[in-house]
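step 3/5: co-fold with D-mannonic acid
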Amino acid sequence: MKLGLGLYRHMLTDENFAFAKQCGCTHLVIHLADYYSNQIVTATDDKTNYGQAKALEPIWQADSMIALQKKAQSYGLTIYAIENFSPADWYDVLLDGPKREAQMEHLKEIIRNAGKAGIRSFGYNFSLAGVWGHQKERSGRGGAYGTCFDASRIKLDAPIPNGEIWNMTYRSNEQGVLAPITSAELWARLRRFLEEILPVAEESGVELALHPDDPPLEGLRGMPRLVYQPELYQNVIDISSSNANKLEFCMGSIQEMTHGNIYDAISQYAGQNRISYIHFRNVKGKVPKYQEVFVDDGDIDMPKALALLEQYGFDGVIIPDHTPEITCGAPWHAGMAYALGYMRAVLQMLDKQLS
Ligand SMILES: O=C(O)[C@@H](O)[C@@H](O)[C@H](O)[C@H](O)CO
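step 4/5: write tokens
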């Protein structure tokens, strides 16, 4: 397995590339969508979302991706994946709206550009509400600042305003709210998206990796969700036998689910060689109330999970995704260094056991 670090768009700096290398990473998973507005994943609710999404930005062009890859390689790193489209670039793919065809052509070009840059995977979250409803508080070990979810503290059925999708605004000053759709309709939209883009992904040498729903609820803000239980990942795999049809295996989101367990999920999906890359993060609790915690402080036995991934021959990239911050002069970096150090130690221990 390959140790990696996830970097949001505003973190694609020389300092953070050097930080990743110094922490023992060989790979990066990068975000080019400009959410979080220079903040780490912040709390969102019916009044606050991830901000204004931007469309057709130059950062998605091949020369930009190639330049980023070359910069990473100058630090001894490889960009393995890009995570998430900009909501402004695919809102009508998610909504089956009038701009769908034009947006699909742009998404295909993005995938082709990733292939030209040697980027092996593209993570996506096919969701109308997106990642929504989390809070940030000092509830981690020792008062660490981290993300949590408590359904009793938010209006779960707060409708999605027109002009908003995936927890971001793509068109301002719209009136009214999104009309509800059925689960079958959302699955049909995913199927159509994959049937059209997987051939392009295959010929580009890029995997499409679906991120599960976080929070993993059957419905949110009046809209259905796709993968809110571990077994539902199989429905995505069964849409297409294409080798490009893969999973962004978020261990935190799967652990937050009420069915099954993370170890059976690893066996099921690593056993089918369907995991593209892994969000290696831990949580305490499950929906409707859970807390993201340090990698060694949660409900998942992480060494057991890594040993199982090794047993099934998973050789992809694992990243901390997000982790509680450590109270000091560099909270995010300290939290990531802690997680990466832990992951690297367990990986080295496994390698020694196998040698
Ligand atoms: O587990 C999660 O919720 C994270 O991975 C997301 O915060 C992240 O934004 C993903 O990119 C969602 O696709």
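step 5/5: annotate
The first strand starts at residue 2 and ends at 7.
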